[in-house]
Specification:
Keywords: Biotin. This protein has about 170 residues and is mainly beta. It has two domains: about 80 residues, Glycoprotein, Type 4 Pilin (2-Layer Sandwich); about 80 residues, OB fold (Dihydrolipoamide Acetyltransferase, E2P) (Beta Barrel), CATH 2.40.50.100. The chain contains one helix and 17 strands.
Amino acid sequence: MKHSFEVDGVDYQLSLSRYQQGYRLLLSNKVIGPVVFSQQGDGCGVLTIAGESEPVRFAIDGEVIHVHIRGRTRILHYRDPLRTLACATNEADHLLARAPMPGLVVTTSVSPGQPVSAGTALMKIESMKLETIIRSPRDGVIDRIHFNEGESFERGAVLVTLSEEGR
């Protein structure tokens, strides 16, 4: 599994893969492992990396994770890889929701002219029997839906165009 986090203004890319009873972590082209997290209660647990264990306290608020370990608190901003691939800004006034993978439109949840809030489901797509919800990353108005239900598309295709409210 590939993940992306922003901590103190720096983006970190990491991958996790199953390894024995835990995971292997690939961070900055360095393999770290085994990595095991044991949750011991609401908001606390033990993180074990390469045999060394540390108590951890955490709080999750949407895509923001507050982690307290070794006397320091860090704020991690999770970057959903599908949302990152699905949305790219091409013009100042428009936001383009792009296809993160080739597939087909299962359902469309919005219509042109409809105002939407950040996080609103725009459409459900399917690729290799995996269904994914394409969500609005910010407030705006649906300008155009580029594919109808049942139509297929390629990776990177523009699925929905949003414009800023009042434009």
